[in-house]
Amino acid sequence: MAAQVRMQGPSRVALAAGQDRLELLLSSAGTDAARLAEDLFGVTNLVASNAALRRALTESSREADNRAALVARLLEGKVSGPAQDLVSGLVRSHWSNSADLTEALEGLAVSAALSGAEKAGRLDQVEDELFRFGRTVAGDVSLRDAFAIRTPGGERKRELVNALLSSKVAPETLRLAEQAAIAPRGRRVEQVLEKFLEAAAARRRQLVAEVVAASPLTEGQRARLSTALRRLYGRDIRVNLDVDPEVIGGLRIMVAGELIDSTVLSRLNTAKRTIAG
């Protein structure tokens, strides 16, 4: 789940679509969440630093294909294929204002980093470390000054974060703290960290559905399944899909320790037990 950003109208719809595409990528066994986060942070910082580029990527008078082509020219060979595809999808959407694209990119980058921590069993650790680092900065005048917006030198700020945290925290904590320090975009570092903490808390509250199907689900099928599970459990549900031809048909779903098994194999096994009994 992406960092919480308050958007209206078309931007809200565009962000939601981007979140869905990101979660599909993150649920794929071949996706490197850390690389994806790094690529998206790089694109975030590029877009944030160039107002003309932001306008070009969000201007509704330009065809969506033209905006996507611009992304291809800018990013081809510089970021991973999944990252380029994700950014292309974002710029094809409509945005209420150009600043929302920057916010969305950063939110998706944060989600990718947190997903990597989650898969490694470090999400609670990252949340705790970000909180403690934020409190450390807020409580130390010299650190507040060193990270202040008026203080120049992004690389010096990155080096300071590394001096304070390197080898002491999870890699995701370090990368998120670096991002907060070098690209606060008019905010205090502790304010950026609070935003990242909101995203971590939201992801921790999100339920995960482990789904086994006989064959891959289409995007539409995954979306309908997520909607049905959200209605059933009253919370956001992230779908992790595994394909096992032996289930023959239907779905086996595990959510919060609860098994929902509608596979043909399950019904066959039930029939066999009934006959044997």
Automatic annotation (TrEMBL):
<keyword id="KW-0472">Membrane</keyword>
<comment type="function">
    <text>F(1)F(0) ATP synthase produces ATP from ADP in the presence of a proton or sodium gradient. F-type ATPases consist of two structural domains, F(1) containing the extramembraneous catalytic core and F(0) containing the membrane proton channel, linked together by a central stalk and a peripheral stalk. During catalysis, ATP synthesis in the catalytic domain of F(1) is coupled via a rotary mechanism of the central stalk subunits to proton translocation.</text>
</comment>
<keyword id="KW-0406">Ion transport</keyword>
<dbReference type="Pfam" id="PF00213">
    <property type="entry name" value="OSCP"/>
</dbReference>
<keyword id="KW-0375">Hydrogen ion transport</keyword>
<comment type="similarity">
    <text>Belongs to the ATPase delta chain family.</text>
</comment>
<keyword id="KW-0813">Transport</keyword>
<protein>
    <recommendedName>
        <fullName>ATP synthase subunit delta</fullName>
    </recommendedName>
</protein>
<keyword id="KW-0139">CF(1)</keyword>
<comment type="function">
    <text>This protein is part of the stalk that links CF(0) to CF(1). It either transmits conformational changes from CF(0) to CF(1) or is implicated in proton conduction.</text>
</comment>
<keyword id="KW-1003">Cell membrane</keyword>
<dbReference type="InterPro" id="IPR000711">
    <property type="entry name" value="ATPase_OSCP/dsu"/>
</dbReference>
<keyword id="KW-0066">ATP synthesis</keyword>
